[in-house]
Design goal:
267 residues, alpha/beta, six-stranded mixed beta sheet, 7 helices, 14 strands, 24% helix, globular
């Protein structure tokens, strides 16, 4: 028995805007260079992603958004891989968990904590919009993306085609704006002016995900984010009607994170 073979031209069946968006989302992602190390780690309690990046030649490393209870896991991994942690960084002052930066400073030698100068939190190094953090020959650019908090930073590595968006932009969502200096219009502008202007094939890694997704892309979020794909007034209305309960650990997390996580650290 023979079956007729028929070639379907998708471009002739879809609106041009949709077809263009699909092509962008399926475009080849930028491959990591051979000397770049990337590891995504997860905390199941707070649904927090922690990211370990390193230069495989010099072994210098940075960690983004570590969690206090998993600092020993992270330090063990860093030691096993023979890396030297240079900076322990936060995308913002978290309200749902205590940062592991302070504990990592005690577990590993010569580590400096890093956070935005507008966060209101203590750190060894306060950074501002446009600052560059270097580890080995690699670097990430700190880009201010306030709205969830005043001190929210997104960290961008242009060579590898990746960005760490903290709580500013989540996968098919965004950080809430109903506490901790939150402002919906500011967040909308941060995303549209600082993140959605990146190349469509840039991979985005948020601080959290609650549905098991690991990453997204600029093109996907521009097309499918149910909040941020709308106009700004509709977005503000959506955010004003979320009616979310307060974060469970906010009363403990925020004071601790103001002190760089140096709070109830195991002896």
């Amino acid at each position: 028995m023979q079956f007729a073979h028929k070639t379907i031209n998708l471009s002739s069946h879809l609106p041009s805007s949709v077809f263009t968006a699909m092509c962008a989302m399926m475009s080849t992602r930028i491959p990591f260079t051979s000397d770049f190390f990337f590891r995504q780690l997860f905390d199941s309690v707070s649904s927090t992603y922690t990211y370990l990046l390193a230069d495989l030649t010099t072994k210098e490393a940075i960690i983004i958004d570590p969690v206090l209870e998993l600092a020993q896991r992270d330090s063990q991994l860093i030691n096993e891989l023979g890396l030297q942690l240079k900076f322990a960084m936060n995308t913002h002052m978290h309200a749902d968990h205590i940062t592991g930066t302070g504990y990592l400073k005690k577990l590993l030698p010569n580590v400096q904590s890093v956070i935005s100068s507008k966060s209101g939190a203590k750190a060894d190094k306060h950074i501002s919009d446009g600052d560059v953090i270097r580890f080995g020959r690699h670097e990430i650019k700190a880009t201010a993306t306030p709205g969830h908090t005043n001190g929210c930073m997104s960290y961008i590595n242009f060579e590898q085609g990746i960005a760490f968006t903290g709580d500013t932009l989540l996968i098919r969502g965004c950080g809430r704006t109903d506490f901790q200096e939150g402002d919906s219009r500011t967040l909308y502008k941060s995303v549209h002016e600082k993140i959605f202007t990146l190349p469509d094939n840039f991979r985005l890694f948020p601080a959290h995900d609650y549905k098991g997704q690991l990453e997204t892309t600029v093109a996907e979020e521009k097309q499918y984010n149910p909040r941020l794909s709308k106009d700004i007034d509709t977005f503000v209305t959506i955010m004003e009607n979320l009616n979310l309960p307060p974060p469970k650990f906010i009363d403990k997390a925020v004071p601790a994170n103001r002190e760089c996580g140096l709070f109830d650290i195991p002896k």
